[in-house]
Amino acid sequence: MVMAMRIHELGGAEVLKWEEVEVGEPKEGEIRVRNKAIGVNFDDVHFRRGVYKTDLPFTPGVEAVGVVIGVGPGLAGMKVGDVVAFGGIPFLGSYAEEQILPASIVVPVPPAIDYMTAASVMLKGMTAHMLLRRCFKVERGHIVLVHAAAGGVGSLLCQWGNALGATVIGTVSSEEKAAQAMEDGCRHTVIYTKEDFVANVESITSGAGVNVVYDSVGKDTFQGSLRCLAPRGHMVSFGQSSGQPDPFSAADLAPKSLFLTRPSLAHYNATREELLEAAGEVFSLVSAGVLNVRTNRICPLSEAALAHGELEARKTAGSIVLIPDCELCFPVRVRSVADQL
């Protein structure tokens, strides 16, 4: 038996319960992983609230890094002691000390990447890769609008977009977050709690608009984001932290011949090759110092409800990481097999 956060009913952060669970042994094509660090994402909140559907009860969490402690029969290419990471719906269950995973969804973590960094960047980094390199291929000279620019994905989008030669405009909620966004490569920031981001973007671009908007906020920003786009611009809606956007007509896209997409990482990493390519590029950019991974909040796994509350209240910047309580007496950066098993 191991400890895990469980959800038996949908609702607020208080529905997260710290309980014992049975993990079992890995079957063919599976591995058993002892989690070392667990990434927190707004997807976890959506599952807890019931916005995203799954059967009750369940263990939430779609991202973690850990050590392989068991390998299913006949599985080649993976062994006990390997450090691996996974990230992305529909595979839940990372809010646990240990879990069973299909070997096909995990990727090897390079020795230069520590547990905390891997848990902070795996899912968010692959999301940034999907947005910048696949949904709309950002190139030098493009103007990019990033909402929630100081968040986990937003921070990576700003850094990566800047490295690609784009002019990045970021919206944030406070002066402190604006300062972080500027450090991360934003050329311009807009504090949306005090300023009209649409008017500011129009002024910054001299009325030309932006080539692409990356919008993880949803309801509060969707219509404004459309107004910020240049003709033939791309609206990439990849989240809904403020709720689902209001219904709209396809005719709303016609005045500027706009493109709209609501991408899912599962569709862009549909094959093992695509998954390894995306994760490999992310880890490579982290190792090279192109991406600075901001882990600004660390909590024991048993206190996941506190992390959820802070995330929903938009009090956090960068990534939140949960550390299994059984790991807290050990340095999370230790990577030797002897210390992991």
TrEMBL record:
SUPFAM superfamilies: GroES-like, NAD(P)-binding Rossmann-fold domains
InterPro entries: ADH-like_C, ADH-like_N, ER, GroES-like_sf, NAD(P)-bd_dom_sf, QOR-like
Oxidoreductase found in the keyword field: yes
SMART domains to which the protein is assigned, alphabetical: PKS_ER
UniProt keywords, alphabetically: NADP, Oxidoreductase
PANTHER family in the record: QUINONE OXIDOREDUCTASE PIG3-RELATED, QUINONE OXIDOREDUCTASE-RELATED
Subunit structure: Homodimer.
Descriptive protein name: Probable quinone oxidoreductase
Organism: Platanthera zijinensis
Lineage: Eukaryota, Viridiplantae, Streptophyta, Embryophyta, Tracheophyta
